[in-house]
Amino acid sequence: MLLKGKKVLITGGSRGIGAGIVREAVAEGADVAFFYRNSADEAQKLAAELSATHPSQRCIAIECDVSDEGAAQAAVKNLLADFGSIDGLVNNAGVTRDVVFARMNRSQWDSVLNTNLGSMFNITKPLIVQMAKQRNGAIVNITSVAAIYGNNGQTNYSAAKAGIIGFTKSLSAEVAPQNIRVNAVAPGYINTDMISILDPDTLSYIKSRISMRRLGNVEDIAPMVCFLLSDKAAYLTGQVIQIDGGITL
Ligand code: NDP
What we know:
Layout: E1 7-11, H1 16-27, E2 31-36, H2 40-53, E3 59-63, H3 69-83, E4 88-91, H4 106-134, E5 137-142, H5 145-149, H6 155-175, E6 180-187, H7 200-208, H8 218-229, E7 240-243
Parallel strand pairs: 1-2, 1-4, 2-3, 4-5, 5-6, 6-7
Helix pairs in contact: 1-8, 3-4, 4-6
Residues 11-12, 14-18, 35-39, 65-67, 92-95, 115, 142, 144, 187, 189-190, 192-195 line the site of NADPH dihydro-nicotinamide-adenine-dinucleotide phosphate.
């Protein structure tokens, strides 16, 4: 098992890609804590299910709004007191507020920047010192192909996700001497609630631009994230791994 004995924190684990990563990390032997904001029922159900199927491992769901620095600091501190240490962090929580820039208001800009990019600071900051002290850690940040190609209606989202790539590369250089690796995964279009707002015509157009002619599934993303968290990826840092079925936007 790739993550046997490791302790991992995943943000936005209640639904979608994050929930897929929680499942995969538990299946790979990790003790997992995951943060959620609104979906308390889904989160507690997932934690209960995985705790029942893997009784020798921990799997706990914790309410924490990752865009709130104070809440994030407190939640990470409490988790460190509970778990003792954290070996792996997946910064996955994210939102969209799609609208063309000419019509975008400040709140749509701020909520996407604060959640998607602000959370990188809020969650990573209280953990990095502990990882440096233990001279061991792996961080995986979830960005998007929108950061690389851009996308109509997503100036806020693309800016935040491009910021994640810069953050990943700079932090990876800073902390590599402490044996901490920092990588990013850039999914293409993955079948989750996030893209359920797209109309059928848009979805058909998107599929026609994907070489594999299908949307991705959370199971297409989660194994790579767990590999990057694992010691098998010991010499891999500062990279952005695109998982998009061969997209040509
Ligand atoms: P979903 O909308 O399905 O799930 C989003 C998750 O993030 C939920 O668990 C949600 O928790 C959590 N979340 C959102 N805001 C916060 C917050 N402030 N604090 C804590 N948790 C929060 O999205 P996906 O699973 O599709 O997306 C996951 C990540 O992958 C995101 O970063 C997204 O940008 C990225 N991505 C997704 C793609 C796709 O096509 N689906 C493509 C490229 C990147 P809750 O429901 O409890 O509030």
